[in-house]
Design goal:
- With 571 residues, the chain is of the alpha/beta class.
- It folds into 3 domains: 73 residues, no CATH class; 118 residues, Alpha-Beta Complex (Aspartate Aminotransferase, domain 1); 242 residues, Aspartate Aminotransferase, domain 2 (3-Layer(aba) Sandwich), CATH 3.40.640.
- 52% of the residues lie in helices and 10% in strands.
- The chain has 20 helices and 13 strands.
- The strands form 3 sheets. Strands 1-7-6-5-4-2-3 form a 7-stranded mixed β-sheet, with helices on both faces. A 4-stranded antiparallel β-sheet has the order 10-11-13-12.
- Bound molecules: pyridoxal-5'-phosphate.
- Pyridoxal-5'-phosphate (PLP) binds next to helix 9.
- Pyridoxal-5'-phosphate binds next to helix 9.
- This is sphinganine-1-phosphate aldolase.
- It is a single-pass membrane protein.
- It is an enzyme of class 4 (lyase).
């Protein structure tokens, strides 16, 4: 019966039917359907009806989801996604078969030993346990000297992408003294450290001004960009839960969004929809539009993103946010004070990205990047307390007393906020404007030289800020990265597409000529090598990107993390 009914619906009527005949056919079909439903109703028990309704709503839910995603990503991309997803799971299972599992384990074990060899580089000094008798101050500093002298990536020479954003002796000195003054401060106890409370409020206020927050603007300090992003997602989720009664939460963000958003989605059980890039390598707005639905509780754009240093189309995202009344977070963790001072430094404006756009409801800014504050310092800002209040943790029931905490941590190192405050008032508008000019001009030189003098490399998109990324269709870019490593340069490796990037810092400014020379030489050398030779990074990314071996890369990353906590290499 059911089969006949569906067959009737599915098969198209012959073309020759006129309107009257079509109407009759439609009526017949409707009749058939109602007969079928009534029939079903009378021949099944209440239990069966309830069961089938639940199954039906489940299936319909799934179907709607599939249709929605296919609509958003397009048919071709959806099929590709499905294929990649199934193939990955299939190969992951295959690698767990007994005979392959052993082989994988031995490969991973080999990689582990290599990792340990390169990471566990020890000084003469070593304490695996608390020493029985305390050392004298002089001895402690001798040990610290030993530990500081281990050969490492040369950040002082500006050879490291990002990582250390300032590194000037004067500032390090200032920060250490500021830390010293407030070494025991804890923001959990504002009564004991009122000065720290004031400085924290002022740091947030200063940064709000830089991002053109309205008078209702507010925020908190955090331990870093990751915590700022976690809080932005948490606040959006709690807002949607309380105000819209949602129980499922979806985030929409370009695929170039920082990994901390993946982390937030995992920690807070939110679903993250990754948007493909358009021809300019920024988030495809049409896809964002199509992915928005009633569970969407946050849109995200980056200004700029980490991989390519490109600014998403925040104006369009803002329009969508306003239209659908959804919060929009702009990740300026990396943009930091470089994007904030751009207008002052160059007397020309970027496309709007901050609170001046009405849809932008929160912004994260890492003061420990281009704000040059000590590491462990970032700001999460909101348009008003109607957003911020949802990141707070409040408990009135704890046996330990009434408890409230504004961020993820409980106790917080007040001295770090003091370090940020001291740095900002020491630098001033003038200091930051000059730093912005130096950094941006250096990034432009890198971009221009690659564009004009190194035809083997291709700049990704139109980077306006401090990060420049490039790929190549002529040589293996990760091999190039490893080759530059021999000259001491540490550029970041990217994937999809394979590329390298450099985040220019104050330390890169005096080193840029040297980098450009070394880059040209390295490109020539790698181009001449034949394609069969490979390198560590090229191999690693090869493993990670292959459907067959992708799951092995997970294991390698876990090994890497394990190694961080080893005092001795494994035997
Ligand atoms: C650095 C960065 C972050 C946060 O990183 P942390 O290491 O946690 O400070 C977030 N977004 C972007 C774009 C970044 O570059």
């Amino acid at each position: 019966m059911a089969l006949k009914y569906f067959a009737n619906i599915l098969f198209l009527p012959p073309m020759s039917l006129d309107i009257g005949e079509l109407a009759a056919l439609a009526q017949a079909k409707t009749q058939l359907a109602s007969v079928w439903v009534l029939n079903y109703y009378h021949t099944h028990s209440t239990y069966e009806l309830a069961r089938d309704l639940i199954i039906l709503s489940y299936v319909l839910g799934w179907l709607t989801n599939i249709l929605r995603l296919t609509y958003a990503y397009g048919l071709w991309r959806s099929i590709k996604n499905l294929y990649r997803y199934t193939a990955k799971r299939f190969y992951k299972k295959t690698l767990e078969l007994p005979f392959l599992k052993k082989k994988v384990a031995s490969e991973v074990d080999h990689a582990k030993h290599e990792l340990e060899k390169s990471l566990i580089v020890k000084a003469k000094t070593s304490f695996n346990e608390v020493p029985e008798f305390g050392l004298t101050e002089k001895e402690v500093f001798q040990k610290l000297e030993d530990l500081n002298n281990i050969a490492a990536a040369n950040w002082k020479g500006g050879k490291l992408s990002g990582a250390v954003y300032h590194g000037g002796d004067e500032l390090i000195d200032l920060q250490s003294k500021a830390y010293h003054k407030f070494a025991v401060a804890n923001q959990l106890h504002p009564d004991a450290f009122p000065g720290v409370r004031q400085m924290e409020a002022e740091v947030v206020s200063m940064v709000l001004k830089l991002f053109n927050a309205p008078s209702t603007g507010c925020g908190t300090t955090t331990s870093g960009g990751t915590e700022s992003l976690l809080l932005a997602c948490l606040a959006a989720r709690e807002k949607a839960r309380h105000e819209r009664g949602l129980s499922e939460f979806e985030i929409i963000a370009p695929k170039t969004v920082h990994a901390a958003i993946f982390k937030a989605a995992l920690y807070f059980k939110m679903k993250l929809h990754l948007v493909d890039l358009d021809e300019n390598y920024i988030g495809n707005i049409t896809q964002v539009k199509r992915l928005i639905n009633r569970n969407t509780c946050l849109l995200i754009g980056s200004a700029p993103n980490f991989p390519h240093g490109l600014v998403d189309n925040i104006e369009e995202l803002s329009k969508l946010a306003v239209k659908h009344n959804i919060p929009l977070h702009v990740d300026c963790c990396l943009g930091s004070f470089v994007i904030a001072y751009y207008e002052k430094a160059f007397q020309s404006s970027l496309k709007p990205f901050d609170f001046r756009l009405p849809g932008v409801t929160s912004i994260s800014c890492d003061t420990h990047k281009y704000g040059f504050a000590p590491k462990g310092s970032s700001i999460i800002m909101y348009r008003s307390n109607e957003y911020r209040k949802y990141q707070y943790f409040v408990s009135t029931e704890w046996v330990g007393g009434l408890y409230g905490s504004p961020t993820l941590a409980g106790s917080r190192p007040g001295a770090l906020t003091v370090g940020a405050w001291a740095t900002m008032v020491y630098m001033g508008d003038d200091g930051y404007t000059r730093a912005c000019q130096d950094i941006i001009l250096t990034a432009r030189r890198l971009r221009q030289t690659v564009d004009e003098e190194i035809p083997e490399l291709e700049i990704i998109g139109d980077p306006q800020l401090s990060v420049v990324s490039f790929k190549s269709s002529k040589l293996n870019i990760h091999k190039l990265g490893d080759r530059l490593g021999k000259d001491g340069w540490h550029l970041s490796a990217l994937q999809d597409p394979p590329a390298l990037h450099l985040a220019v810092t104050k330390l890169t400014v005096p080193a840029i000529d040297r980098l450009l020379e070394d880059l040209k030489v390295a490109v020539k050398e790698v181009s001449l090598e034949d394609n069969t030779t490979t390198s560590d990074t090229a191999q690693l990314y090869g493993v990670a990107n292959s459907l067959q071996t992708g799951s092995v890369a997970d294991k390698l990353i876990t090994c890497f993390l394990d190694t961080l906590y080893k005092t001795e290499p494994s035997t």
